[in-house]
Amino acid sequence: MSPARIDKPLTLALSKGRIFDETLPLLEAAGIRVTENPETSRKLILPTDSPDLQIIIVRASDVPTYVQYGAADFGIAGKDVLYEHMAQHPGGLYQPIDLNIARCRLCVAVREGFDYDAAVHQGSRLRIATKYVRAAREHFAAKGVHVDLIKLYGSMELAPLVGLADAIVDLVSSGGTLRANHLVEVEEIREISSRLIVNQAALKMRSARLQPIIDAFGRASDSMT
Ligand code: ATP
Ligand code: MG
Predict the structure, then answer these.
(1) CA-closest residue to ligand 1 atom 30
(2) Measured distance CA(218)–CA(179) in Å, rounded
(3) Among the atoms of ligand 1, which is closest to the Cα of residue 78?
(4) pTM assigned to the model
(5) For residue 80, which ligand has an atom nearest its CA?
(6) What residues pair up with 110 in beta bridges, in sequence order?
(7) Is 21 exposed, middle or buried (0-12, 13-18, 19+ CB in 10 A)?
(8) Domains in the chain, please, with CATH?
(9) Distance from the CA of 82 to the center of ligand 2, in angstroms?
């Protein structure tokens, strides 16, 4: 008699939206199809056509946490999210490949007509609203600008319009949301894409199942760029 399988399936943590959509072709390249759509299904655990691989759907900023604690074996997270996560939890996550998906840029934006160049100089003081507190703090510290950081969890574009902040630090891809809210991008902080992240214990203990998927993701993202 074969021994009972007590292994839980290999678990991949993804966020809905851009990252999920752009991961599907990578999964397909690894021979894996997701059999349910997270936009219409209310399930947070999605099966795939591969019985030993399941996908969990979590908030983008929670993906590193699930992987770090081993609740997911691997995941895909934006460098924006990873940078903030690493400030609180250094080490513990293996980040083997830049998948080059969900590309955008982290930048500073202000209200149209706001004189950013005049407001930003050595020794000046600025109020910045952002979800990306670490990236914002380091960016302005390097310029010698004092900032009062106001942590927000979404709809950052609103902050300069209602007088909560002088500027925001946020992700931009097409710039459409900024334009719709009469904001302009005044500085790029860094380019963003998503990385594969892997739990270190899982990499050791489950490498026979994990490594082929990691390799397929790497090959697929190379061929797409
Ligand atoms: P939620 O929408 O649940 O509040 P979120 O806004 O942090 O969470 P998403 O909007 O799903 O999450 O974005 C997830 C990731 O997609 C980001 O962390 C980033 O790496 C990437 N991304 C790429 N382009 C953009 C963009 N224009 N705006 C936001 N995120 C983007
Ligand atoms: Mg969002």
Answers:
(1) 171
(2) 35
(3) 20
(4) 0.94
(5) 1
(6) 167, 184
(7) middle
(8) 10-102+193-224 (3.40.190.10), 104-192 (3.40.190.10)
(9) 16
Please report which ligand is nearest the Cα atom of 79.
1
Residue 221: what are its φ and ψ, rounded to 5°? -70, -30
Residue in 16, 18, 103, 190 to alter for ligand 1 test, most ligand atoms within 8 A of Cβ: 18
The answer to whether the beta carbons of residues 52 and 6 sit under 8 Å apart is no
Please answer whether residues 95 and 196 qualify as being in contact, where contact means their C-beta atoms are separated by less than 8 angstroms.
Answer: yes
Amino acid identity at 6: I
- Which residue's CA is minimally distant from atom 7 of ligand 1? 60
Q: What is the pLDDT along the chain (225 residues), one digit of tens a residue?
A: 444 445 789 999 999 999 999 999 999 999 999 999 999 999 999 999 999 999 999 999 999 999 999 999 999 999 999 999 999 998 889 999 999 999 999 999 999 999 999 999 989 999 999 999 999 999 999 999 999 999 999 999 999 999 999 999 999 999 999 999 999 999 999 999 999 999 999 999 999 999 999 999 999 999 987
